[in-house]
């Protein structure tokens, strides 16, 4: 029989699906969407509640409903004392584990009345410049969107295969002073890889993200890369890193791929040790999903945490953005 005291301090899990309208639409090579569907986990214990948010991604066979079910299945282990470190083995890397990992960290920080970076012995995050995404479209549409964002110092340009040089040239003309990084979302092929990379180099692009499908990226090891190439869909957690060293110069760490901040921080340490540059990325989500990723900023060469900027509105108490400058979270939001 469970004692009244243990019942009082048992952890309770609540999870739900949320939908957040996107300002306009968000388009990449795999399609477009007009809303961000997130899943939120809340863990309560002893008068405190920790929160985490994730974005299930169909590219990895995740759905909001499946993620919600995976989270709710963890109520009993959490009630029985499952902690954050045991969670890493109890669930696979992915969106569901991310939400729980971040919720447990938030709960621990609130319970101990410490900021989460102090708790983890990590440097305090600092305000930093985030990339701002230009969605895939026609050269004319992308130029128009870029003109509105040309004052931003770092733009991330979504490309999609055929016609990419015209798209990129239009963007560069509209934002001659901005640093450009490119994300092809696996849309290029081994046949057009070198030509597209050379086009990017000629147009002053700094980094190209995931040009080839993850199953075909071995072609990157056979060519001389004129600019840095970053792994996204090919890089998930620490176990994926060593095989990528000859193919990529950088890795994009996302909490939804790594399965939470715990693994993301370990992955960043491992990637740095292997000589990779680090990019911190996100899905289109609210500030609750972005806040934990701010702890990775001190190790990052590229920061791409503009998810809330792409929404019609963020959740209350969200991160503070001043144009492209994003500030660390307040404790009330997370951590």
Helix content: 25-40%
The main sheet orders its strands as 5-6-7-8-9-10-11-12
Taking Cα atoms only, what radius of gyration do you get, to the nearest Å? 20 Å
Q: Based on the coordinates given, report the CATH architecture of the largest domain.
A: Alpha-Beta Barrel
Mean pLDDT: 94
Number of domains: 2
What is the CATH topology of the largest domain? Answer: TIM Barrel
Q: Tell me the strand percentage band.
A: 15-25%
Structural class of the secondary elements?
alpha/beta
How is the topology of this model organized?
Elements: H1 4-9, E1 12-28, E2 31-45, E3 48-54, H2 64-72, H3 75-79, H4 84-90, H5 95-112, H6 116-120, E4 128-129, E5 132-134, H7 139-149, E6 154-158, H8 164-174, E7 179-183, H9 193-202, E8 205-209, E9 228-231, E10 250-253, H10 255-258, H11 261-273, E11 277-280, H12 287-290, E12 302-303, E13 321-322, E14 325-326
Parallel strand pairs: 5-6, 6-7, 7-8, 8-9, 9-10, 10-11, 11-12
Antiparallel strand pairs: 1-2, 2-3, 4-14, 13-14
Helix pairs in contact: 2-5, 7-8
């Amino acid at each position: 029989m469970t004692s009244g005291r243990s019942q009082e301090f048992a952890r309770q899990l609540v999870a739900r699906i949320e939908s957040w309208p996107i300002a306009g639409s968000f388009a990449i090579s795999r399609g477009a969407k007009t809303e961000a569907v997130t899943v939120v986990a809340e863990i309560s214990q002893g008068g405190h509640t920790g929160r985490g948010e994730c974005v299930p991604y169909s590219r990895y066979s995740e759905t909001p409903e499946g993620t919600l079910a995976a989270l709710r299945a963890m109520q009993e282990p959490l009630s029985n004392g499952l902690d954050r470190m045991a969670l890493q083995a109890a669930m696979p890397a992915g969106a569901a584990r991310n939400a729980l990992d971040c919720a447990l960290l938030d709960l621990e920080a609130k319970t101990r009345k410490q900021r989460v970076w102090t708790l983890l012995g990590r440097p305090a995050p600092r305000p930093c410049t985030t990339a701002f995404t230009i969605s895939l479209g026609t050269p004319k549409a992308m130029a128009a969107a870029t003109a509105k964002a040309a004052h931003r110092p770092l733009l991330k340009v979504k490309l999609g295969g055929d016609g990419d040089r015209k798209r990129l040239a239009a963007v560069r003309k509209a934002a001659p002073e901005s640093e450009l990084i490119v994300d092809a979302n696996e849309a290029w092929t081994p046949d057009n890889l070198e030509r597209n990379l050379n086009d990017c180099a000629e147009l002053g692009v700094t980094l190209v993200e995931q040009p080839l499908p993850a199953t075909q990226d071995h072609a990157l090891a056979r060519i001389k890369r004129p600019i840095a190439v970053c792994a996204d869909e090919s890089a998930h957690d620490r176990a994926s890193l060593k095989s990528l060293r000859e193919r990529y110069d950088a890795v994009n760490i996302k909490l939804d791929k790594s399965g939470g901040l715990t693994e993301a921080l370990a992955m960043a340490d491992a990637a740095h040790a292997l000589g990779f540059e680090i990019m911190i990325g996100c899905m289109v989500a609210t500030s609750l999903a972005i806040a934990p990723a701010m702890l990775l900023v001190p190790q990052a060469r590229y920061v791409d945490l503009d998810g809330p900027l792409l929404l019609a509105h963020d959740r209350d108490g969200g991160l503070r953005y001043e144009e492209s400058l994003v500030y660390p979270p307040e404790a009330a939001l997370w951590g």
